């Protein structure tokens, strides 16, 4: 069956590039009205604006850094002014870096934590008054939360933290009819080129023989946004091709 999100009002953080962009466009094409945020002006934002206009519906792009409380407040206020409610909040915004743990500066640890865990905390808490019974909160985690990866201890820790946050919030918010889940992508091919040797290695590791796409992630997010997932709560769904 097709997923129809007509009438749904959704906030997606970090929606101008990569997986976030795929989620925004996937939800909009399924009929949802979407607010998304971005941190840096540029062609990615301009082209997304054009694509959303061609898709139809009511969509808004807001410049906001999810690690800054005042900017999160402005983002949520834009959602309240535009939609009055949020049927789903999708936390995609995040940052990553590759640093050996022994050399990891505290400032870089805090930057990753403030964005990848602090952002979801801020946005969820501030948006909560707008989420009605039947609403859905979706955290975009990562498959690395279960397996770990060298040089990304700080990043992995934040993605594992989202799993714990999800399990607690699913119980705390379930009584008011709000579901909370994690989508955990594996290797995803975005607009950034993948080195041939890396692509070949992943093709051997992934039983389906390919990297995932933003659309693969967007489909699962659309399911969790829709009423089809009304009894799915507190779980982490891997989108990784079986790696």
Automatic annotation (TrEMBL):
Highest classification ranks of the organism: Bacteria, Bacillati, Actinomycetota, Actinomycetes, Streptosporangiales
Domain annotation Ketoreductase: ranges: 8-191
Entries under Pfam families matching the protein: adh_short_C2
Keyword set includes Oxidoreductase: yes
Name the UniProt record assigns to this protein: SDR family NAD(P)-dependent oxidoreductase
Source organism (scientific name): Actinoallomurus liliacearum
Keywords: Oxidoreductase
Domain of life: Bacteria
Entry keyword annotation includes Iron: no
Family to which the UniProt record says this protein belongs: Belongs to the short-chain dehydrogenases/reductases (SDR) family.
């Amino acid at each position: 069956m097709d997923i129809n999100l007509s009438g749904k009002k959704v906030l997606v953080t970090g929606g101008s590039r990569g997986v976030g962009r795929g989620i925004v466009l996937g939800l909009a094409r399924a009929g949802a009205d979407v607010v998304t945020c971005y941190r840096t002006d540029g062609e990615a934002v301009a082209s997304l604006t054009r694509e959303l206009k061609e898709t139809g519906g009511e969509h808004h792009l807001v410049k906001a850094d999810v690690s800054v409380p005042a900017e999160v407040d402005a983002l949520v206020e834009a959602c309240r002014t535009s939609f009055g409610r949020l049927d789903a909040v999708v936390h995609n915004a995040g940052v990553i870096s590759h640093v050996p743990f022994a050399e990891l500066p505290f400032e870089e640890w805090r930057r990753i934590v403030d964005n990848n865990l602090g952002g979801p905390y801020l946005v969820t808490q501030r948006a909560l008054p707008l989420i009605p019974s039947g609403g859905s909160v979706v955290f975009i985690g990562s498959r690395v939360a279960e397996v770990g990866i060298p040089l990304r201890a700080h990043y992995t820790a934040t993605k594992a933290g989202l799993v714990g946050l999800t399990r607690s919030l699913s119980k705390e918010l379930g009584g008011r009819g709000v579901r909370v889940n994690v989508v955990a992508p594996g290797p995803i091919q975005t607009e950034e080129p993948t080195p041939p040797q890396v692509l070949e290695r992943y093709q051997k590791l992934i039983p389906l023989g390919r990297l995932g796409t933003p659309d693969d992630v967007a489909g699962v997010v659309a399911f969790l946004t829709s009423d089809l997932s009304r009894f799915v709560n507190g779980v982490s769904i891997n989108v990784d091709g079986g790696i």
